[in-house]
Specification:
alpha+beta, 5 helices, Ubiquitin-like (UB roll), four-stranded mixed beta sheet, single chain, Translation Initiation Factor IF3, 211 residues
Length: 211
């Protein structure tokens, strides 16, 4: 067989026994990469690391090929705070997924005479999402609608996602640590409950958590 080293260097034609010996000495794998070649070509490599890198490349290629979509969220000039927060979270989700966010604000009847209220709402959305998004299309009228389009600040959103994933990991670890323990929930006289770990299977420090 023709053997290629771990760093891509050509080691020439060697026997199977020699190739296996070299792989064992280097504590890496012997992988046949061109079985139909004459002679067959093998390479010394960390096969686990190789598979991980190939998987990562495929994932990155898939992300680059992903078509950016425009997701629309509709508002009204008098959208209340509760509904506003829900819609803002939807916009954040679209931006995190790499899509563009289209904000549509529709005027009805006499509301057309007070377009400044719609402009103020769009400016509020812009300011609230400023750390994560940029304005791709500034507010403009399309019939009875005022429209604005945002696109993601990818670097900032990636940092936020990493922090969020880390937080979820911490929460998961905490949940696993208290698994099997009996929880005594006491009323503290406030709106919060105090959860205290007791009779844990493994000795540990006391955990206090606010509901």
């Amino acid at each position: 067989m023709r053997l290629i080293g771990a760093d891509g260097e050509q080691l020439g034609i060697v026997s199977l026994v020699v190739a296996i010996t070299l792989a064992g000495e280097a504590e890496i794998d012997l992988v046949e990469i061109a079985p139909t070649a004459q002679p067959p070509v093998c390479r010394l490599m960390d096969y686990g690391k190789f598979r991980y890198q190939e998987s990562k490349k495929r994932h990155e290629t898939k992300l680059r090929q992903k078509q950016v979509q425009i997701k629309e969220v509709k508002f009204r000039p008098n959208t209340d705070d509760g509904d506003y927060k829900i819609k803002l979270r939807s916009l954040m989700t679209f931006l995190e997924d790499g899509d563009k966010a289209k904000i549509t604000l529709r005027f009805r009847g006499r509301e057309m005479a007070h377009q400044e209220f719609g402009m103020r709402l769009l400016e509020r959305i812009r300011d609230d999402l400023e750390p994560y998004a940029i304005v791709e299309q500034f507010p403009r009228m399309e019939g009875r609608q005022m429209v604005m389009v945002l696109s993601a600040k990818k670097k900032e959103l990636k940092t936020i996602k990493i922090k969020r994933d880390k937080l979820e990991e911490i929460k998961s670890n905490v949940a696993q640590n208290i698994s099997g323990a009996k929880l005594d929930i006491k009323n503290s006289g406030t709106d919060f409950g105090i959860i205290t770990r007791v009779e844990s299977e493994k000795p540990s420090n006391q955990i206090l958590e606010s509901n």
